[in-house]
Specification:
InterPro entries: MFS (IPR011701), MFS_dom (IPR020846), MFS_trans_sf (IPR036259), NO3_transporter (IPR044772). Pfam families: MFS_1. The protein folds into two domains: 200 residues, Up-down Bundle (Growth Hormone, Chain: A); 217 residues, MFS general substrate transporter like domains (Growth Hormone, Chain: A). Helices cover 75% and strands 0% of the residues. The protein has 20 helices and no strands. Helix 8 runs antiparallel to helix 14.
């Protein structure tokens, strides 16, 4: 039992480090957009396209790697992704043509798909009553890799960089982060173990045919959690890319550092508070405490539903705070929106492995992949030219979230929730063999 416990925590540490670095290398271009634009002669619009391309591969990539993790085990798939990302990052350091550079960085940006691999790996080792906290720690600390990259890379690879291979700081950054990625790939493959027991590994593997995946992807539970992730993680992506512009343009805040700092308060809440969302779900499930009578007995569902409702209310509050004309009001409510995102995201990924113990990778892939769509769609509302001002876009986004909340209220009802992990829109209602995760 002691060895299992030690390996369990090693798995959490390994997955968290791997995901944290994946986020760092995913957004490693961001601190260097200025010198890259100067060298390649890029316009602001072209830099924007480069930034948005980081999300393009996420929906399909996460679905694929989630399924592959179930079939072949997380250590092998995580190692493969880290290895090829490292190789292409190194290649991008030597690219002289912008078209070649863009394609190479597009491939490097697939580092973001590692999220679902780690989710699956942690789920294979942790018992059901602690899944929410474990997944919350993994995802919360992992997401911080993006902020870490913004703080660390420009300081290590400063404007005066003149190393042995490169005299250009961003080329050096891409080269050396690529080297680290390859080393992490070797470490992950060497130290990682796919599951707590061979029986658990086989039960997960047996559900990985295409017909089984299609049914898994269209089960009621998968569909509602994917929709919920659009309005939580998708919202987080959209706000991360928009808030600095909003605080600057809507409040005539000319100081870019201050505007970016205010925007960072949202990112801090959305990332570092995520374990709170998972722990709350675990706590209700362990204590079997009902906080919403109409969802009696569905403890994790109650916590997730409240998180979704909180997001909608705070999005409407963002509009009111903006219309007040007081910047500090908008910053405070922005922090609370980030808190709502963290709450819902942690709750959702406490539910995923708890509801689908033998399909956690496949379901995480669908939920994580579909969720990124919000990062593409919501910014269109924030900056819509037909709105009277920049404050109203948040309320428009909130209105589009109401049907998702209504869908969750239906699926989370006791009579539907009991079959939500087996019944769906496509395929059989039969699950594969269920294997308990076991205790420490």
């Amino acid at each position: 039992m002691g060895l299992i416990k030690m390996t369990k925590y090693r798995t959490l540490l390994l997955a968290t480090i791997g995901f944290n670095f994946s986020f760092l290398i995913w957004f490693s271009f961001a601190p260097f957009t200025g010198p890259m634009a100067e060298e390649f002669g890029l316009s602001t619009a072209e830099i924007g396209i480069l930034a948005s391309s980081a999300i393009w591969m996420a929906p399909f990539g996460r679905m694929l790697t989630g399924w592959l993790s179930d079939k072949f085990g997380a250590p092998a798939i995580f190692a493969i992704v880290l290895a090829y990302v490292g190789v292409f990052s190194i290649g991008s350091a030597f690219a002289q043509d912008y078209s070649v550079f863009f394609v190479l960085r597009l491939i490097v940006a697939t580092a973001g798909i590692t999220f679902v691999i780690g989710i699956q790996h942690v789920a294979e080792w942790f018992e059901e009553e602690n899944l929410g906290l474990a997944e919350g720690i993994y995802a919360g600390v992992g997401n911080a890799g993006a902020a870490g990259g913004a703080l660390i890379l420009p300081r290590v690879f400063g404007s005066g960089w003149n190393g042995p291979l490169f005299s250009t700081n961003w080329r050096a950054a891409f080269f050396y982060t690529g080297i680290v990625s390859i080393l992490l790939a070797i470490a992950y493959y060497t130290l990682g173990e796919a599951a707590k027991t061979e029986a658990k590994r086989q039960a997960t593997k047996e559900n990985t045919n295409f017909k089984g995946w299609l049914h898994t992807a269209t089960r009621y539970g998968t569909v509602v959690l994917a929709a919920a992730y659009i309005m939580s993680f998708g919202l987080e992506l959209s706000m991360n890319g928009w808030l600095a512009t909003y605080y600057r343009e809507a409040f005539n805040q000319d100081n870019l550092v201050i505007a970016s700092t205010f925007a960072a308060t949202f990112s801090i809440a959305a990332g570092l508070l995520r374990p709170f969302g998972g722990y709350g779900s675990d706590l209700l499930a362990r204590k079997e405490k009902n906080i919403l009578p109409f969802l009696k007995g569905q403890y994790r569902e109650q916590w997730t539903f409240l998180g979704l409702c909180f997001i909608v209310l705070m999005m409407f509050a963002m509009t009111l705070a903006g219309l007040s004309g007081v910047l500090l009001n908008a910053v405070v409510i922005g922090f609370l929106v980030g808190t709502g995102c963290a709450w819902a995201e942690g709750a959702i990924f406490a539910q995923v492995p708890a509801m689908f113990p033998n399909d956690s990778g496949s379901v995480a892939g669908v939920v994580g992949g579909v969720g990124t769509v919000g990062g593409i769609v919501y910014p269109l509302f924030y900056s819509a030219p037909w709105l009277a001002n920049l404050h109203l876009g948040y309320s428009v986004a909130a209105v589009t979230m109401i049907p998702i909340v209504a869908l969750s209220a239906w699926v989370f009802r006791p009579e539907i929730a009991k079959i939500a992990n087996t019944a769906g829109f496509v395929g059989s209602t039969q699950e594969g063999p269920t294997v308990a995760s076991g205790d420490d």
